[in-house]
Amino acid sequence: MNNIPAIAGGTPVRDKKLYYGHQYIDDKDINAVVEVLKSDYLTCGPKIEEVEKKLCQITDAKHACLISNGTAALHVALQAIGVGEGDEIITTPLTFAASANCGLYCGAKVVFADVNEETYNIDPASVKEKITDKTKAVVAVDFTGQAVELDELLSICHEKGIKLVEDGAHSIGTKYKGRKVGSIADVTTFSFHPVKTVTCGEGGAIMTNDDEIAKRLYLYRSHGITREADLMVREPDGPWYYEQIGLGMNYRMTDMQAALLGSQLDKLEIFSKRRSQIVKIYDEAFSKVDGLIVQKEIAESDTTRHLYILRLDLNKLKCTRREFFDAMNAENICCNVHYIPVYRHPYYEQLGYNKGLCPVAEKIYEGIMSLPLYYSLTDEDVNDVIEAVKKLVDYYHV
Ligand SMILES: Cc1ncc(COP(=O)(O)O)c(C=O)c1O
Q1: 396 preceded by cis ω (within 30°)?
Q2: In ligand 1, which atom is closest to the CA atom of 72?
Q3: Which residue's CA is minimally distant from atom 10 of ligand 1?
Q4: Does residue 301 contact residue 148 with C-beta atoms inside 8 Å?
Q5: Are 329 and 13 in contact (CB under 8 A)?
Q6: What lines the ligand 1 site, CB under 6 Å?
Q7: Are 176 and 242 in contact (CB under 8 A)?
Q8: Is the distance from CB of 48 to CB of 258 less than 8 angstroms?
Q9: Rounded distance, CA 151 to CA 171, Å?
Q10: 3-state SS class at 109
Q11: What does the longest C-alpha to C-alpha distance in the chain come to?
Q12: What distance in angstroms lies between residue 392's CA and the mean position of ligand 1's atoms?
């Protein structure tokens, strides 16, 4: 092992760059898409319903609504539970902007609750404090894939007549107390962006066990238009007849994407297993390193991890997160940072949100970066990451 960091003139741990995320596409995936391209339907065809059924089987949820992406999933989920002008939603700041933006799309005010210092997930006690008469929904993000404290959040929400929307963009494959994410909250959303555990390029899904909510999901996914006779206001005047009974968008997924997703879902278990193996190796390597903090996993969550967060204990290191990040890059390990607390973005600042609103989330943000985590990482890749991290901790340790 060479001990001098590349950034200080040493040799990098590897020659080829390693990125923090990458999709895994095999011939079965490619053939599934090609089959659709040769078929009669490129969109609104049979693949959508077929894969919706598959998602229900995988998650044990009653209904699945495939949709164009995870952001659209959140928007439609909130529309379907009736979030609108004058309402408030509560979410975490340690997330991608979409978890909060969905509230703004509906005309609601976004309220941020702080996170747990050890798990980085939304803190139920903070949620409780932020609830007002206007709160309509809590959008709880399974950050990195770890399930939020669902039982506690559900009881806090339901006691007040509030819906729990689980933003499961990171957590397909995760179980909570043995039950599958997708079948537990009032509504759960998934994202199938390429860095996620399964992908179809761009894509999302909304899961619910509630029949009434489900009807509205399908409606708002496609303009607010229905062809279901029992939802129509008027008598159809012919077989062509359809009605717009609400205001929705075109958030439909194509059949090519659905076919890719269906094929990827067949690999969810092996993807999940490999991700868990890598997380275990990282955890074992980092848990006893002075200067690093390992994300705590609650016993209730059997997690399919989407992200691995390396957290620096900046009191123990004579470097900034930026310096450590750049030094990792010089070792050819390209990290990322998830996430800038949402309300620290200029757009949210001009809406009146200020620094200091969620001190725990802000403190966590200062020391974090995401290490490579994906199915096709080899053991050698994982060892390179560990070697680079340990080399830099040794170098920067006070
Ligand atoms: C927590 C979270 N919610 C929502 C989304 C939005 O998903 P999409 O990119 O599919 O729109 C993302 C995407 O990265 C996310 O990480």
Answers
A1: no
A2: 11
A3: 70
A4: no
A5: no
A6: 69-71, 95-96, 98-99, 141, 167, 169-170, 191, 193, 204
A7: no
A8: yes
A9: 17
A10: strand
A11: 78
A12: 31
Return the residue matching tokens 């066990």: 209
The pLDDT of residue 2 is 66
Tokens standing for 173?
């494959």
Element (H, E) at 88: strand 88-91
Q: What backbone phi and psi angles, to 5 degrees, belong to 34?
A: -60, -40
Measured in degrees and rounded to the nearest 5, phi and psi for residue 89 equal -120, 150
* The residue type at 43: T
Distance 74 CA to ligand 1 centre (A): 9
Cα–Cα distance, 55 to 206 (Å, whole number): 10
113: its two tokens: 């609750």
Q: What is the number of the ligand 1 atom nearest to the C-alpha of 142?
A: 1
State how far the Cα of 20 lies from the Cα of 195, in Å rounded to an integer. 8
Burial class (CB in 10 A: 0-12, 13-18, 19+), 129: exposed
Provide the pLDDT for residue 120: 98
Going from the N-terminus, what domains does the chain have, and what CATH number goes with each? 6-21+268-396 (3.90.1150.10), 27-265 (3.40.640.10)
Tokens of 296: 């705590």
Question: Which pLDDT score, from 0 to 100, does residue 35 have?
Answer: 98
Gap from CA of 38 to ligand 1 centroid (Å):
31
pLDDT along the chain (398 residues), means of 10: 88 97 98 98 97 98 98 98 98 98 98 98 98 98 98 98 98 98 98 98 98 98 95 94 97 98 98 98 97 98 98 98 98 98 98 98 98 98 98 97
- Identify the bridge partners of residue 111 per DSSP, sorted by sequence position: 90
**Which atom, in ligand 1's list, is nearest to the CA of 192?**
10
Residues shown for the chain: 398
Residue from 96, 206, 306 to probe ligand 1 pocket by mutation (most atoms less than 8 Å from CB): 96
